[in-house]
């Protein structure tokens, strides 16, 4: 197969591993800087240009679109889809997962466990928002935040009101969620590939930090997840429509709750913690599924 990978940094561990895995299985993989692509939109034959040349027709495309370039990245991916190139994850599914509010609404619709989550526009509704969330402590998240940035733990109702009013006064959209204190600063990331959980790790935040992101000083170890946690991860991936994703869950007193579904999960932490060849499993999934024009949405919204 001839595979394109949309990625801005070819030297990241995940991107190098995917390239190694593809080449080890006899495929050709080109890493294409997403932001250097440009497109002929109006043509009856959709085309993508890169560094002054028209891109050849690929069998599959692996989108590794950073959160900061979601809008342009999904536009380029839609163009690939309209050319009939099979995407590892479809543009519509990535868009769903990147919109924190929409993703929570879809997960709730499908009956997937979530922390109590509230959203309001008017700062005057702060009191009601806190009451619905169960009162402090609460976690306040920027809708546009990623990788633990823009996430605040407010210990008291007073501090929560101050943070909410400050964010809303600045015109920033936020979610307010109950704080799952029984998770004790740990979460579970389950890697889903093709509707199956292929690996799982438990992440623990750095000392004094309730966030468990590995790049913020957290640590990881392999973990055996329960059948309910496995089912929750698989259903969350299906809700978003993602073939490959990382599902982040907390263990609460009322079962697993999903915090986020990541459409471009990093491979370094989970591969090193579990010893599982995730990159190879992803390429194997493409081998079985990549067929011209098999995209469900074909670039539709």
Automatic annotation (TrEMBL):
Keywords carried by this UniProt record: ATP-binding, Ligase, Magnesium, Manganese, Metal-binding, Nucleotide-binding, Protein biosynthesis, Ribonucleoprotein, Ribosomal protein
GO cellular component: ribosome
Co-factor binding comment: Binds 2 magnesium or manganese ions per subunit.
PROSITE patterns: ATP_GRASP
Residues the entry annotates as binding ATP: 141, 178-179, 187, 211-213
GO molecular function: ligase activity
EC top class named in words: ligase
TM annotation in the entry: none
Origin: domain of life: Bacteria
Similarity comment: Belongs to the RimK family.
Entry protein name: Probable alpha-L-glutamate ligase
